[in-house]
Amino acid sequence: MVRLVGTGVEEFLAGHVERSPAANRCVHTILRDGDQIIDDCVIVLHGVQTTADISLHGGPWILRRVLDLLERTGFHIDHLSQKLLSPYVVDADSAIEREVLRYIPQARTEQSLRSLLAQPAAWRKLAVEELCTVVPALLSDDGLFWLLHPPRVAIAGTPNSGKSTLANRLFAQERSITADAPGTTRDWVGEMTDIDGLAVMLIDTPGLRPITERIEATAIESGGRELNTADLVIVVLDATADPAEQARVVELFPRGLRILNKCDLAMPPWAIADGAIETIATTDHGLEGVRNAIRRRFNGIDSDYQRPRWWTDEQRGILQASLTDPQRLVEYVSASNVPGSI
C-alpha cells in the first residue's frame, strides 16, 4: 500500500485513475501512466480529501513504477525510517492511539516499542483511577519520552584519559580511533547505541586542552558545541594525571556524570573523585555501572510496561490539566474524530 498525503492528491487521482474514488469508499480502478496501465488497484480517498491509500498488487516492478510516477508528478517519497509520522498518515479511534501509531518509527528498541504499544490501555485505566494520587507521580516520569526521543550523551575529558576507549566499549565497536598521542580524536564522533534498551546518540569529543594547531582547534571548538547542547556529559577523569588539570574539566561540567578511569593504577586521593564511577576502559571494569548511571539519568523504564507514561508535551499538558479538570483526560483516551481516520 502507498499512502498519498498533500494538496495534490485529488489532482493526481483525477489525471491517473479511470474511476475517481468517493470519500471514505473503496474503489476498484485502473492506475495509468499516460497510455500505459500500471495496475488495477483499490483506492480509498479519506474524508479529509488530502489523503488517499492505493492498494497495489505485489511485486517490486509495480511499486517502482508507481513511485516513479509519483515523483515525476511532484510527490516526495518518504520511506518513514525513524521519522515521526504525520497525523494524516495514521488511522486511529482516539487521540492516544493516534500518538502511539505516529511514534512507532521512533521506537528503536524492543523496550521502547513494548512500552509504547501498552499505553492506550494504560491511559484508559488511568482515566478511572484516583487522579490526585496517580498523576503527580506520572508527570515526573519522563522515561518513555527519552525512549522515543534519544538523548545526546557527550563524552568529555583531557587527552589520553580513556574517553575514546570508553566510547568504543559503549558503542560496542571500534568507532573511535584510540592511540597514546594527544589529539588522536580530531573531530567529534557520534553514533546511535543501545544502552540496555535506551537508544542514545553517543558522542566522543576531542580531548580538552590548550592547543595552537588550527585544525585541532577547529575540531575542539566543534566538539565544544556538542558538549554544550548535550543532554548529559560524561566527564572522564584520568587517575594517573594531574588532579588540578582534571579539576578544571569537572568545573566545566558540574552536572556531568563523573568517571574515574585507569583506577587500577596508582593515584593520589582526589576530592573530585568522590562519587565518581571507577572504570578501567580497556577491560570493561565499571562499564556496567556507567550504563546503569546513564539509564538512571533518563528515568530508565523497568520491565513494567503496563504503567501509563507520557511522551509528548501535549500529553503532559493534558495530565496537568486533569488535576483540576478530569474530563480532559477522559476525552483524550476516548474514541473521537481524529485526522486520518476513515
Report what the structure shows:
The protein has 342 residues and is an alpha/beta fold. It folds into 3 domains: 2-72, Gyrase A, domain 2 (2-Layer Sandwich); 87-147 and 301-333, no CATH class; 152-297, Rossmann fold. Helices cover 36% and strands 18% of the residues. It contains 13 helices and 10 strands. It has helices at 9-16, 60-72, 95-103, 110-117, 119-126, 131-139, 143-148, 163-171, 214-229, 243-252, 287-297, 313-322, 327-333, and strands at residues 2-5, 26-33, 36-45, 51-55, 152-157, 189-195, 198-204, 232-238, 257-261, 277-279. It has a 6-stranded mixed sheet, sandwiched between helices. A 4-stranded antiparallel sheet has the order 1-4-3-2. The protein is elongated and about 80 Å long. The model is unreliable at 173-186 and 209-223 (pLDDT under 50).
